[in-house]
Write a structure and sequence with these properties.
Largest sheet: 6 strands, mixed
CATH class: Alpha Beta
Structural class: alpha/beta
Shape: globular
Bound molecules: adenosine-5'-diphosphate
Number of strands: 10
Oligomer: single chain
Subcellular location: Cell membrane
Strand content: 25-35%
Membrane topology: Peripheral membrane protein
Main location: membrane
Protein name: Cell division ATP-binding protein FtsE
CATH topology: Rossmann fold
Helix content: 25-40%
Distance between the termini: 28 Å
Order of helices and strands: EEEHEEHEHHHEHEHEE
Number of domains: 1
Radius of gyration: 18 Å
GO biological process, one term: cell division
Amino acid sequence: MIYFDKVSKIYNGTGKTVALEDVSFAIEPGEFVSIVGQSGAGKTTLLKMLLAEEAPTSGSVFFESTNINELRDAEKPLLRRRIGTVFQDFKLLPNKTAYENIAFAMEVAGRAEEEIAADVPHVLELVDLGNKMWNFPHQLSGGERQRVAIARAIVNQPDLIIADEPTGNLDPVNTYEIVQIFRKINDMGTTVFLTTHNKGIIDSIKKRVITLEHGRVSRDDKAGQYVL
Ligand code: ADP
């Protein structure tokens, strides 16, 4: 489903930064893959390439048979519609309720009113927030906000969910709950690709872990270990 083929990325800022160096791996549909590594290891850069937000300096990134670097600007939204995204800072719209945040994502994707009315309560139930549908983000805890963001990410039934440090702002109890939700989504068939530097998460997920060190893949373990 995803294939990184000898991908390198050099940022040209005040100096040259090698963010990724000769990174190759493949992810099959239905996998749950965590990318671990210290801050600056290149994790976010990797996810941005899947969204066509950053292009490799050399090498190629494929989503199914599509070479992402060869997409024209007009084609990028189609790719992004197939990928649900979750971020450390939730990125909810502050002046919209939980329901409206999710409904908005469906409207943007061109979904019909009836579908929106049926699907929004359903995904909120799935993340156990059926009773907080009409709360604004400031009336929700951090863990609840992240659950709204996850509901929003899955509502258009993407093939892939990518999550960049999704538990970075959460305490251990909320972290555990969020991980359980990702597992549930994965069990329902969606491929999950997340970044973290939380060792506890990795040890509890017991799924594939790719370790990045200074932009290079240093380990690729089938069943979860965080070794740095
Ligand atoms: P991580 O997500 O693992 O913390 P990043 O992918 O964000 O790592 O960053 C990898 C390296 O690339 C870091 O050294 C970072 O400073 C650098 N970097 C990231 N984005 C940019 C950018 N837009 N311009 C210049 N350097 C960048």
